[in-house]
Amino acid sequence: MRVHILGICGTFMGSLAQLAKALGHQVSGSDHGVYPPMSEQLSAAGIDLIEGFDPAAIPADTELVIIGNAMSRGNPSVEYVLERGIPYCSGPQWMNQHLLQGRWVAAVAGTHGKTSTASMLAWILECAGMAPGFLIGGVPGNFPVSARLGDSPFFVIEADEYDTAFFDKRSKFVHYLPRTVVMNNLEFDHADIFDDLAAIERQFHHLVRLVPASGRIVLPASEPALERVLAQGCWSEIERFGERSGWHIRKHADDGSLFSLWQGEQQLGQVQWSLNGDHNLNNVCAALLAARHMGVRPEQALEALTSFRLPRRRMECLANTGRVRVYDDFAHHPTAIKTTLAGARAAMTNDERLIAVLEPRSNTMKMGVHKEALIPAVGAADLSFWLESQGQGWSLADLLPEEKGRCFHTVEELLEHLQQQLRPGDRVVFMSNGGFSGLPARFAAWVNLQAEEEHA
After folding, report:
1. Is residue 77 over pLDDT 90?
2. Which of 55, 170, 276, 443 could bridge 80 with an S-S bond, Cβ 3.0-4.6 Å?
């Protein structure tokens, strides 16, 4: 089948494109603002990418157009598809009809940690010899691609609560036919489509209603929003983690790089790994219990974690000169920012500085919904520098203490200031859910060049 995808460079749609290609379909796609790593993956897969949404880019013999949820009425290509009566569907609908039927689907949901936990679960299954398929909203550290068909019935999917398409306002995850569900956490987000947390809880309840009686829902204990979701009705097995009486993690290093898994008072194993932060330990418990439901012993899963690598843009180290380190991270919600920076701080000595460089880019951020929580979220950082978007409608400069950082309106100003501020012992963490105008890579290249010149 000849398939054309509108919005192909989004993490979900780009992954879907690779799966469609692997199934033997002819795949092309349109998007704007194309940037790595997804553009690199699509090119490597032999998928034609067209910049912009000129209807002329849609091949004349297209049999199906898959429309991403970023597309809206008024988009030239969307209008062309509707006017010409070309068959179309959403990405999640295509997954439901062409890929997930008859498979054991593990859906990883939650406000934070979906990409890391889904990657972790896929790697555990891989190490157990289960050859899973997967679709992950990022580039996993242990796999060369963000999606693959797999060679078994098992399929891991990152389950996003964002809406499906302009013509289907249900959350994406209601299409995924899950048997195993991870619900890692639940906070208010996506203020552009949800009025309040209760509206998101309703969508999570729709997900719960889809799980068969023999299926299982894995979640942390004492998470009020998730408990409210379950209170609306649940017909499946439930497994909680985080309480000493049940499944839980104990840290043996302050930064979480050494930990053990316990079931009550029984220790099942210990892991030394390259990750840090309490948020990653929560992800561990969720992935281990999901894998257990799918047939992997906890001891096997722990062994897999010793070789686990975070997905790209999850505290991805772009430069390490021995004196300065530069990281790129996807965190875009105050809670994710806070836990990520706390994990970084725990791995540092007292004479090192932590510098956070942030771009409040998501629709929720631009609306100012979380603005009061942003300054406390960077409390673990010694300095924070912010790139403010045009038309943002509010300014962090009104909230940010001068001694803790500055706001900038252009990338060039921010880059110049960073270069002037940098000193030995600094760890610089860039945080954005977009490309940050290429700033992280540019700064990392400059840091490496400085180090080379010093040693010349």
Report:
1. yes
2. 55
Known binding residues for ATP are: 110-116
332 and 293 both lie in a single domain: no
Residues 272 and 349 in one domain: no
Please tell me the distance from the alpha carbon of residue 221 to that of residue 180, in angstroms, as a whole number: 17
Q: Which residues are annotated as a binding site?
A: 110-116
Chain-centroid distance of CA 433 in Å reads 9
Tokens (6 digits) for 347: 């791995």
CA–chain centroid gap for 230, Å, is 24
pLDDT at 347 exceeding the cut of 90: no
Amino acid identity, position 208: V
Same domain, yes or no, for 252 and 321? no
The domain total for the chain is: 3
pTM, rounded to two decimals = 0.83
Q: Are strands 64-67 and 133-135 parallel, antiparallel or unpaired?
A: unpaired
Does residue 311 form part of some domain? no
- Reading the block at residue 19, the tokens are 């799966």
DSSP state of 370: T
Q: Give CA–CA dist 12/15, Å, rounded.
A: 5
| Statement to judge: residues 287 and 140 lie in one domain | yes
Q: Say what the pLDDT of residue 362 is.
A: 65
Is the model's pLDDT at 38 over the cut of 80?
no
CATH of the domain at 375: 3.90.190.20
Q: Are residues 83 and 165 in the same domain?
A: no
Q: What is the pLDDT of residues 143-180, one digit of tens each?
A: 988 899 999 999 999 999 999 999 999 999 999 999 99
Selection from 385, 399, 392, 390 nearest residue 365 by Cα: 392
Whether 342 is in a domain gets the answer: yes
Q: Are 140 and 220 contained in the same domain?
A: yes
Whether residue 95 lies inside any domain: the answer is no
Domain hosting residue 284, numbered range: 100-305
- Average pLDDT of the chain is 90
What is the band of 396 on the pLDDT scale with cuts at 50, 70, 90? confident
Residue 310 lies in a domain: no
